Amino acid sequence: MKILAAHPSSLMYTKIFLRLEPLGIETIAAELRRSGHDVRLIDLQVDDHAAYFREIESWRPDVVAFSCNYLANIPEIVDLAKATKDRLPDVFFFVGGHSASFVAADMIAHSDGAIDCVLKGEGEATVARLIEAAASDRDPASLIELPGVVTAAGAGPAPAFVRNLDDHHPARDLLRHRRKYFIGVLDPCASIEFSRGCPWDCSFCSAWTFYGRSYRVKSAEASVDELASIREPGVFIVDDVAFIQAEHGMAIGEGIARRGIRKQYYLETRGDVLLRNKDVFRFWKTLGLQYMFLGVEAIDEDGLKRFRKRVTLSKNFEALEFARSLGIMVAINIIADPSWDHQQFEVIRQWCLEIPEIVNISVNTPYPGTESWVTEARKLTTRDYRLFDIQHAVLPTKLPLHEFYGELVRTQQVLNRKHLGWRAVGALAGILANNLSRGQTNTLRMLWKFNSVFNPQLQLADHRQTVKYEMSTPPPHRDVVDPNTLYIHPARGRRGRAIDADTENFVEQTRINGKPAV
Ligand code: B12
Ligand code: SF4
């Protein structure tokens, strides 16, 4: 069968700082190709809708498989499904991915029959069977016999896990414009996955609820083999928390060193993991680790408590100190709460000015699939999916909305002043020249884009857009949530986490429902 795999457009933040390859849909595309289908891939972060429709009309696929990791992309995908069905009434249009899994039935309802089904959870496990089943019988009631399938007739059994992550590789070769992917100065940049899931359980996050609080790893051998097949000099490691288990990080690093692979890396981890596994990160620095993202979230203990991150402030600051000592460029995230007043923004602004790190400010946003979605007592001010991108306020702001955005953008401006524009050209001259000599201009071009994307007037205008599709309201408020009611993949308890007893204990000590950290 002819299958077009697609990834939706970029959201606000990714219009400047980075654009990364869509690893999820590449992995699905690989699985479909492996089962004998003719697969093409289009990424709307790089190509536009006109290119998508040209592909639909000229190639006339039998199936369109859309990736939906982000809530904010839902209206776009629903509209594309309708427009695709207008052009190809017999096409089988289905969707999968992180956010689609949490709001599957709503997406199907919005689409008025244009989306045939949503496949929840990690798609590799069932996607080939789904296509096979749909080829002979598209009856929504039959399709839901398969794990993870949701159709207009209801939902099937819980999604299945893949047996072994080593068996699955993204079809990187199907991506058409690989030179368009970059992060900061890593230009061009590929992505890779060494592990899946997260054993912690932060209240604002759905990474753990998606995988039933499991944590699995790719073997060091398979990870290094995959890395060796990547042509780009930059690599973004997509793991939610990199190198939770020191031995795994070390084994991959040793494989890289043995095979003489030279690349530059970006990864995301927690401050307490960084401090626990210092040797691993020190070793990775020698292998080419350039950037690290630490989810600090708040610079006061109250804020940390609110996000239920049981890592102490002093640990976070110690982690920053350690990362600095390694000479790694650190980016951190701070969550701005809609209840903030002028003073609170000012405190953060001053702090941002004092430290050398890149500080990203996001807005506290309850998402379906998180604990906050159920426990957050404040009323949503909007149910427009497009505003759920952690750059817009969807909860009531204490300041008038225009003042809130004014403060938010003024605080984000510090990043612009410190790390972008001419100042960056001066600091990064050598790297930029090297990138240019290889024909890579992504980094250079991002340096002056800030003001065209981060602008309070544009954010306010987003609130005034006509809302075509509205998210369902959150369930009735509860103070305590049974995590089993949030999971997409059912929990397998301790045996679902590939970590040793010491690490499990460490997670217990630092996770929200565990014992307090000392
Ligand atoms: C890498 C990553 C990114 C990359 C995106 C790369 C890309 N172009 O896809 C970058 C850094 C750019 C990014 C940015 C953002 N991200 Co992000 N990101 C992730 C992260 C850490 C891993 C995703 C990944 O690649 N995993 C590896 C691949 C193999 O898995 P996967 O994509 O999930 O795909 C599997 C399944 O989902 C499914 N699947 C996926 N597509 C399809 C399609 C079909 C047809 C089927 C059947 C199945 C299927 O099968 C795949 C294989 O098992 C996730 C956290 C997580 N654990 O999911 C957050 C996450 C998805 N991001 C999140 C957020 C909030 C953002 C931002 C909005 C943040 C911001 N500051 O603005 C931006 C918006 C990006 C945009 N669209 O423009 C949230 C999503 C929230 C939501 N519900 O909308 C997550 C869950 C993080 C979190 N902890 O909350 N992100
Ligand atoms: S540590 Fe917390 S915020 Fe980070 S991925 Fe895990 S659950 Fe989400």
Automatic annotation (TrEMBL):
It comes from the Bacteria. SUPFAM superfamilies: Cobalamin (vitamin B12)-binding domain, Radical SAM enzymes. One of its GO terms (cellular component) is cytosol. SMART domains: Elp3. Its EC number is 2.1.1.-. One of its GO terms (biological process) is methylation. It is an enzyme of class 2 (transferase). Keywords: Iron, Iron-sulfur, Metal-binding, Methyltransferase, S-adenosyl-L-methionine, Transferase. InterPro entries: Aldolase_TIM, BchE-like, Cobalamin-bd, Cobalamin-bd_sf, Elp3/MiaA/NifB-like_rSAM, HpnR_B12_rSAM, Methyltransferase_Class_B, rSAM. Signal peptide: none annotated. Its cofactor is [4Fe-4S] cluster. Residues 184-398 form the Radical SAM core domain. GO terms for molecular function: 4 iron, 4 sulfur cluster binding; cobalamin binding; metal ion binding; methyltransferase activity. Residues 8-141 form the B12-binding domain. This is Hopanoid C-3 methylase. It comes from Paludisphaera borealis. The gene is hpnR.
